[in-house]
Amino acid sequence: MLSSFNEWFWQDRFWLPPNVTWTELEDRDGRVYPHPQDLLAALPLALVLLAMRLAFERFIGLPLSRWLGVRDQTRRQVKPNATLEKHFLTEGHRPKEPQLSLLAAQCGLTLRQTQRWFRRRRNQDRPQLTKKFCEASLTPVSLQESWLWAPVMCWDRYPNQTLKPSLYWWYLLELGFYLSLLIRLPFDVKRKDFKEQVIHHFVAVILMTFSYSANLLRIGSLVLLLHDSSDYLLEACKMVNYMQYQQVCDALFLIFSLVFFYTRLVLFPTQILYTTYYESISNRGPFFGYYFFNGLLMLLQLLHVFWSCLILRMLYSFMKKGQMEKDIRSDVEESDSSEEEAAAQEPLQLKNGAVGGPRPAPTDGPRSRVAGRLTNRHTTAT
């Protein structure tokens, strides 16, 4: 059964253009072509990169962050509470006010104390600045080829294009890097665009695997190059931000924004998508791999638009306030002076169940009756 599936999966019509077979891409006469099984080396490489990343963060990134003045905020630990912890893990991290009131009654706490517990518990799950700095300080280094700047050359003699060793190692490193990101994803900093990041990493791995197997290395290299060009600027911007060099951070973010918009919203659709949609089939008809590859590229373009909207929001805030706001993808650490627990919004709960605070003056007591008589006498005399 496995052999039947393998034979069906690797049919020529799925991966290669019409009238092209796998036998034409076999190594011969000193000409080497990419083969799908070559990518198996990316799996142990991903583990090696993961181990190198952990070692880098511990022995280089962390000391470097402290030397550069990156300091973690002091966090107050929450008191153990089984009821609140169960709700936090199963129901959600941000309960609504009716739920908070119910939980407060169950635990014998005030609403303010319950809000404070959830706020501090959320802060415990947020990574410290030093961890963010370490993650931003390690990015892969990609290679460059002169022919990468001519998209139309990607289809010259395709698919009979030999494999260069430099291109092989670049692909292997990039694939190993993204595989290591997927392995580490559950333990990394979780931002508001976490789902989009997961989609992006999976699409990147599938694109690299498919493009290598179908010998689409040249156009795949262009996609990698465009993405890497702005990623380095973003990581540098985040590192400077954690060091609290605001002016340098603002300048780097503006440069990153320009590079991101130009590469993802101008070059990617006009050069990459154009050549894959039109120039790739100028001498041959479309096939399954054509639709599959372009579908994944279009999904990448949608992610580019999504992240461009986030960047535009930050740029709008910069133009309005004159200072770059915090990364809107990241959760801001909450302080105990948060607006949601302002004392004026909730009366003080006493042990006997009574409510403290200002009370309306009684209207039927002795003092009220005396005051009423004096008022009547004053009115009569007048």
UniProtKB/TrEMBL annotation:
Which parts of the sequence belong to the TLC domain? Answer: 128-320
Q: Where is the composition biased (Acidic residues)?
A: 333-343
Matching Pfam families, A to Z? Homeodomain, TRAM_LAG1_CLN8
Q: Which GO molecular function terms does the record list?
A: DNA binding; sphingosine N-acyltransferase activity
Keyword Nuclease attached = no
All copies of domain Homeobox, residue ranges? 84-128
List every stretch annotated Disordered. Answer: 329-382
User: What is this protein identified as?
Assistant: Ceramide synthase 4
Going by the entry's taxonomy, the superkingdom of the source organism is recorded as: Eukaryota
Reaction catalysis annotation: sphinganine + octadecanoyl-CoA = N-(octadecanoyl)-sphinganine + CoA + H(+)
From the UniProt annotation, which stretches of this protein bind DNA?
Answer: 86-129
Under the heading PROSITE patterns, the entry gives: HOMEOBOX_2, TLC
Spell out where the chain crosses the membrane: 39-56, 167-187, 199-227, 248-268, 288-316
Subcellular location(s) per record: Endoplasmic reticulum membrane; Nucleus
The protein's organism comes out as Gorilla gorilla gorilla
Asked whether the UniProt record includes Mitochondrion among its keywords, one would answer no
- What is the protein's membrane topology class? Multi-pass membrane protein
Q: What SMART domains does the database record attribute to this sequence?
A: HOX (SM00389), TLC (SM00724)
Alphabetized PANTHER family for the sequence? CERAMIDE SYNTHASE 4 (PTHR12560:SF6), LONGEVITY ASSURANCE FACTOR 1 LAG1 (PTHR12560)
Q: Name the keywords, alphabetized.
A: DNA-binding, Endoplasmic reticulum, Homeobox, Lipid biosynthesis, Lipid metabolism, Membrane, Nucleus, Transferase, Transmembrane, Transmembrane helix
Gene3D superfamilies reported for this sequence: Homeodomain-like
CC per GO annotation: endoplasmic reticulum membrane; nucleus
Per the record, the GO terms for biological process are: ceramide biosynthetic process
